[in-house]
Design brief:
Layout (H helix, E strand, L loop, with lengths): L5 E8 L3 H10 L10 E3 L3 E6 L5 H12 L4 E6 L8 H16 L14 E3 L2 E5 L8 H5 L4 H12 L3 E6 L10 E6 L3 E6 L2 E6 L10 H8 L7 E4 L8 H6 L5 E6 L2 H13 L6 E5 L2 H4 L9 E4 L9 H7 L5 E10 L3 H18 L5 E14 L2 E11 L1
Parallel strand pairs: 6-7, 11-12, 11-14, 12-13, 14-15
Antiparallel strand pairs: 1-3, 1-4, 2-3, 5-6, 7-8, 9-10, 15-17, 16-17
The structure holds S-adenosylmethionine (SAM).
């Protein structure tokens, strides 16, 4: 047996195991890719790294700890990799080796994927590889998807396409295995929806946490673009909003809002307003302390409706927008001027202050997703 096929174990009495294990770890002499073995007569064997001589290690253990060790060689059995990327690589390589040995498996080992509960979404780039047709039509393609799902610890698998540029900002998921219905907990909140029909912006996590951290006790809040509750639920559960009115046009998202509200036990503090918010906001005139306007690239169509929905005591608007980095300041000033004009037109008598600009993420090169917190008070 050569050194690669065999592992050297340092076998000691189990009662000394903990001390020897600690000593090997401290000296970086433990081979962490192989599991320890249970040897005969209450003894345990620790795998010794290839990088050190076994005699040298046994002598050091005897001299430092006063413990006698026996050296045993066994065929190498590596532990399955703990890192999901390593597991994915191993699963994909093994499928290609058995089913398409002439193809390069590398493009099928993505560096990133999105996980929504039991569903993992792989990047759309996979579909653009030269091998996609051959792989996806292979009679044993399902074995590949099953192996990938197992490596990622999920039961369903899909390919994520760019978010559709439609009114709903629909998700465009191509399912490879299992079901697109997802349920998962994020920041203590349950979300549940059909991932093939609605988007979930996991990338906006910092903004969701920022909104969740605000104090909205006693406030009536409008979420003008509620989706499946990305902001609606944190505002109710963490920020303590008294009531949220959620406007949403996509029936699939409305269904996610309903099931999510039930799962989080907050249905009694939530009113859904299905349909176009240009119409539904008109029914909420003068009722809100705060409005959330979370649509990209722009939420401008709801600005006037949200302004009119504020109580006579005024409130705060959280306005999402994609803005070129060097134009952010100019955009803030222009937005304040635009609201001053609307306030004057409607005789609302609010004074306006740009309280904060949050840079959420890069949307495209040089283009930022920003949120402007605008305060409007009498
Ligand atoms: C970006 S998505 C989800 C928004 C969520 N606030 C976020 O940032 O993750 C925007 C949502 O607004 C909804 N929507 C778009 N236009 C709408 C409109 N005119 N009235 C009501 N909802 C609308 C879409 O269906 C979608 O669910």
């Amino acid at each position: 047996m050569n050194k690669r096929d065999a592992t050297v174990f340092l076998v000691v009495k189990s009662s000394c195991g903990e001390r020897v294990h600690e000593f090997l770890k401290q000296n970086a002499w433990l081979d962490r890719t192989v599991a320890p073995i249970e040897a005969a007569e209450r003894s345990v064997g620790f795998p010794v790294s290839d990088l050190v001589g076994e005699q040298e290690v046994a002598e050091a253990v005897a001299a430092t700890l006063g413990i006698d060790a026996e050296i045993v060689r066994q065929p190498t059995v590596r532990r399955p990799p703990v890192n999901p990327h390593e597991r994915l690589k191993a699963a994909v390589s093994s499928w290609f080796a058995s089913h398409l040995p002439q193809c390069n498996p590398e493009p099928f080992v993505p560096k990133k994927w999105e996980r929504l509960g039991e569903l993992a979404l792989l990047p759309y780039a996979l579909k653009e590889t030269g091998e996609w047709e051959e792989v996806s039509r292979h009679e044993h393609a399902s074995l590949l998807w099953k192996a990938v799902a197992a490596a990622l610890g999920v039961s369903s698998l899909g390919l994520q396409a760019p978010i559709a540029n439609d009114l709903y900002r629909s998700a465009q998921v191509c399912m490879l295995l299992g079901s697109p219905l997802v349920k998962f907990i994020d920041h203590g909140i349950t979300y549940t929806f059909d991932a093939s029909k609605v988007m979930f912006s996991s990338g906006n996590i910092t903004e969701r946490r920022r909104i969740a951290g605000m104090d909205m006790a006693e406030e009536v809040v409008i979420d003008a673009y509620a989706g499946v509750g990305y902001y609606t639920f944190p505002m109710l559960v963490h920020a303590g909003a008294k009531h949220v009115h959620a406007c949403e046009i996509n029936p699939a998202s409305i269904s996610g809002l309903e099931t999510g509200a039930e799962a989080n036990g907050i249905s009694h503090r939530l009113t859904l307003h299905p349909g176009d918010n240009v119409k539904t906001l008109a029914r909420l005139k003068g009722q809100a302390d705060r409005c959330h306007l979370g649509l990209l690239p722009s939420s401008e169509l709801a600005w006037e409706g949200c302004l009119m929905a504020l109580k006579p005591s005024g409130g705060v608007l959280h306005i999402h927008m994609n803005v070129e980095e060097e134009k952010i300041e100019r955009w803030v000033k222009a937005t304040v001027r635009r609201f001053e004009k609307l306030v004057a037109e409607h005789g609302l008598g609010f004074s306006i202050e740009a309280q904060h600009v949050e840079r959420v993420k890069w949307f495209a090169p040089r283009v930022r997703h920003v949120v402007l917190d605008l305060s409007l008070r009498p």
